[in-house]
Predict the structure.
Amino acid sequence: MNQNMILLILCSILLSFTSCENEICRNCNSYFLDNFNGNLDSFYGSFYVCELDDVWDEIAWLEDCQGCWTINEGGDGSIIDSDIYKLGVRHIQNTDIDNDNILNDFDDDIDNDGLLNFEDTTPYGTGIQTILELVICTEE
Ligand SMILES: [Ca+2]
Ligand SMILES: [Ca+2]
C-alpha cells in the first residue's frame, strides 16, 4: 500500500466520523429578564445560534448550568416547559442607558444629566450598562 492510499483511507475515516455529528442549532427569542412575565410573544428580538458560534458561548444555558441561576424559583417563568424550550441567560450591552430612545452611539448626553459627554467626567453615569437577557430557544 502506498502512502497516498493510506492518506486517502485516513481521510475517509475522518470524514465519516465528523459527518455523523450534527451540530446543535437553536431558534431563540430574547426577553428582558427583569420584566419577563411569561408571555412568550413579548420577545424584542430573535436570532438563530449554533453550537460552534461565538454567541453560543455567551449564553449560560440552563441545562449546562444547573444551579447557576433559576427562573422557576417562584417566578412567572415556571410556565415555560423545559422539555420544549431551552432556556439561557446572557449579558447584553445596554445601548440606551438613559432610556430616551437615542442610542448611546448617537446620544450626546448618554446619562442624561445635562452635561454633554465631552464635558462629563462620567459620561455613562450610574445607569445600567449591561442588561440581563433571557433567551428562550427551540431546538432545530
Ligand atoms: Ca440615550
Ligand atoms: Ca452627561
Q: What stands out?
A: Residues 23-139 form one domain. The longest strand covers residues 130-139.
